[in-house]
């Protein structure tokens, strides 16, 4: 299966039961441009686990709306079956139920069980630029948790690094350049580089700017190579770092060897990223 994360969401256009359950409409991917979309597939109507999921998402629809996200459910049933189910047990949901009777959308999103003609429990978060940012596919015996989807949505919207267990409202790692660098230097790869005499940033955090420059220069005069850590290697989207910090922490790009003045000497392949 080809990955979808980070790519444009596959196009779709399907007939659907409207959010109020009263009429049929057409829903297409471009309808959701500029918004977050929670697109979730389920196996079929009039079953056992599916209504618990559909109603759970319905109960959280205001939370999704507050987060700037729309809900859209999809199965391979017809819109008439959707409407009959709502009128005979399921009840109104407040979001559209799409009908992928051609099976094409399920196949495009990698959730089609071909031998049964039904969808797996796949869920996709599609951002306002219509790129897939998150996906999860469950075994059909296991329902999904809307609160976990809301947590992931909130994390994605921060634009930063969110640790395991992160919850909305907590600080993420985007604001802590120092903590990210500390994490990097504790890695086995970074430790090997330190053991071999490479210069790495955390040695200079405790010193003032002039002392950092002097220590870098002294080490380089001894023939050690200065490792280059660009801010984009550490955290995409982090604001530009001050020039003097860049000199002390991340000297030149692409892992080149440098002299005591920060000039490129000869190329080598050693990088820390």
Set out the fold topology.
Elements: E1 13-17, E2 24-28, E3 36-41, H1 50-59, H2 61-66, E4 69-75, H3 79-90, E5 97-99, H4 104-108, E6 112-113, E7 118-119, E8 121-126, E9 132-138, H5 146-158, H6 177-185, H7 188-195, H8 209-221, H9 231-234, H10 243-249, E10 256-258, E11 264-267
Parallel strand pairs: 3-4, 4-5
Antiparallel strand pairs: 1-2, 1-5, 3-8, 6-7, 8-9, 10-11
For the CA atoms, what is the radius of gyration? 26 Å
In whole angstroms, how far apart are the ends? 29 Å
Q: Which strands sit side by side, in order, in the main sheet?
A: 2-1-5-4-3-8-9
Beta-sheet strand percentage? 15-25%
Query: What's the overall geometry?
Result: globular
Order of helices and strands: EEEHHEHEHEEEEHHHHHHEE
Number of helices: 10
**Largest sheet properties:** 7 strands, mixed
Mean pLDDT: 75
Judged by helices, strands and strand pairing, the structural class is alpha+beta
Helicity level: 25-40%
Structural notes for this entry:
It is globular, with a radius of gyration of 26 Å. With 273 residues, it is α+β, with helices and mostly antiparallel strands. It is built from ten helices and eleven strands. It has a seven-stranded mixed beta sheet. It has a two-stranded antiparallel ribbon with strand order 6-7. The protein has a two-stranded antiparallel sheet with strand order 10-11. Helices cover 32% and strands 18% of the residues. The chain starts with 12 loop residues before the first strand and ends in a 6-residue tail after the last strand. Strand 1 and strand 2 form a beta hairpin.
